[in-house]
Design a protein that fits this description.
heterodimer, A: globular, B: mainly alpha
């Protein structure tokens, strides 16, 4: 195993998240009640997604500066894992909203029309679709240098599209998500101090886990490249 | 590395035997697990899943490291 201190940190933080995340006292909010503990799990997925997309675009820019194919592999794998965590965020969000936003007096299908108008759902769906297009664009080009160059440029555009679709437009529109005014996950006034104590370690732990898995994928694909070039 | 593995197995078996004992004697551990709406049972399940996923990742990491050494 390579450079293991941050992997140990990741495991420790995740264990802390799982134990403290279930045991601390959370403020009783209407409709949310105990489910506000999902802040450490569901919101964590989005934090990982944004971090991995950011690392991906940084590597795309590094590729364009050096034309070293290594950075192309980095950019690709980081955005793949970003998509993966984004989908996880979507799935966990579906479960969460089924028991909080959905009207219990109506069948789930009828509440769907109300929930589907949620700007954050639409915004992140657009952002994820743009990244799906990145994968399709990459894999449709056979020439290695061309593929790396075009997808690096596209990656920068895709990252630029995250700003309006996730960070700007959903905050301008009425939404079911809490903390619409300002920065929902990171605002100090929004979440109780006890939950803060778990939230930040949780975000760091999940992010490290995402990075760990990505480094494994990167090392595997570098091995594969080496075998192909032999 | 092999020593570490043995140590780990020893540790797991030790912990599991104390757990079994504790359940037999209805001592503190069993009481703890049944308190607080039995939330600790959920934590135990979640930690087991987390631990096995992490172990899987560690093994994968080692395998890739070995592959890198061979090339």
């Amino acid at each position: 195993m390579r450079k293991s201190w941050w992997k140990i940190l990741c495991v420790v933080l995740l264990i802390y998240t799982f134990v403290a995340g279930l045991l601390i006292k959370v403020p009783k909010l209407p409709a949310l009640e105990q489910t506000s503990r999902n802040l450490f799990f569901h919101v964590g997925m989005w934090a990982v997604m944004m971090t991995l997309f950011t690392v991906s675009v940084v590597n795309a820019i590094r590729y364009l500066r050096t034309f070293d194919l290594k950075y192309d592999i980095y950019a690709r794998q980081y955005s793949t894992m970003g998509i993966f965590f984004g989908i996880l965020g979507y799935i966990t969000g579906t479960i969460w909203m089924s028991y909080t936003w959905a009207d219990p007096n109506n069948p789930l299908f009828d509440s769907f029309s109300a929930v589907a108008r949620e700007p954050k759902l639409i915004g992140t769906a657009i952002a994820l679709l743009i990244y799906f297009a990145y994968m399709i664009l990459r894999d449709s080009i056979n020439d290695m240098d061309k593929r790396a160059r075009i997808s690096a440029v596209y990656n920068i555009f895709a990252y630029a599209m995250i700003f309006p679709t996730i960070w700007i437009i959903p905050r301008l529109l009425p939404s079911l998500h809490p903390g619409q005014q300002g920065n929902p996950a990171l605002d100090f006034k929004d979440v109780s101090p006890e939950m803060r104590m778990v939230e930040y370690p949780a975000f760091i732990g999940w992010t490290l886990l995402g990075v760990w898995i990505t480094t494994l994928k990167i090392r595997l694909s570098i091995l594969k490249e080496r075998k192909l070039s032999q | 590395m092999k020593q570490l593995k043995h140590l780990f197995i020893l540790l797991v078996s030790l912990v599991s035997t104390t757990v079994i004992h504790a359940q037999g004697n209805k001592s503190d551990f069993g009481e703890l697990m049944r308190s607080n709406g039995r939330i600790y049972v959920v934590i135990a399940v979640m930690l087991t899943i987390l631990a096995s996923l992490i172990l899987y990742l560690v093994r994968l990491d080692r395998k890739i490291s070995n592959l890198e050494k061979e090339n």
